[in-house]
Amino acid sequence: GESVGLHLPTLSVQEGDNSIINCAYSNSASDYFIWYKQESGKGPQFIIDIRSNMDKRQGQRVTVLLNKTVKHLSLQIAATQPGDSAVYFCAESHNNAGNMLTFGGGTRLMVKP
Amino acid sequence: NAGVTQTPKFQVLKTGQSMTLQCAQDMNHEYMSWYRQDPGMGLRLIHYSVGAGITDQGEVPNGYNVSRSTTEDFPLRLLSAAPSQTSVYFCASSSGLAGPTDTQYFGPGTRLTVL
Fold this sequence. Notes:
Chain A has no helices and 11 strands. Chain A has strands spanning 4-6, 10-14, 19-25, 32-38, 45-51, 56-58, 62-67, 72-77, 86-93, 102-103, 107-112. Chain A is globular and about 40 Å long. Chain A starts with a strand and ends with a strand. In chain B, 0% of the residues lie in helices and 49% in strands. In chain B, the strands form 2 sheets. In chain B, strands 2, 4, 5, 6, 9, 10 and 11 form a 7-stranded mixed β-sheet that branches. A 4-stranded antiparallel β-sheet of chain B has the order 1-3-8-7, with no helix packed on it. Chain B starts with a strand and ends with a strand.
């Protein structure tokens, strides 16, 4: 069935470098996308979201890019810090799905000091 | 304001036992959901509720029951636990004001092991 998935299961970056986490989705009806951060032993924490009528959205140190042509979503973290180490999930929903979110499999970001 | 709370944090069951995972939120949110997270995987929706008295099935509802008698509480019941239900369970809530685009707030999770 339709799914949201991630390209890389683990990403290791040097502290201070920029990180890019990618996500592919297959449901062309998806119109809302969210990135979550999950630290060990905790629930997912909202980072940033984007609607399908946008290509880019920026937050504090984070940017989400949406390419609807190739159904691709990315999360960019600037000046990655040790506190950014976590598993990152993308999720999507669409108006016809009510409140249902479909999550990708997650990417583990490891920040080396 | 505690946000979304879940109890217990850890639970071990034997096959065939029943139990209820508790979830409560104090943000007056209309939408509440239950997810399970298996190792190395993303979260999968079990059941959700868009308001008191209203529940619906998610992606993986089999083996689970829910009810929503109040806005604050959304318990998840396992009627006859199976080893395949070993997982981490997360409850989430959102205001419901913006429908699917609402930010969902997650609880800390319940780690369940079924032997």
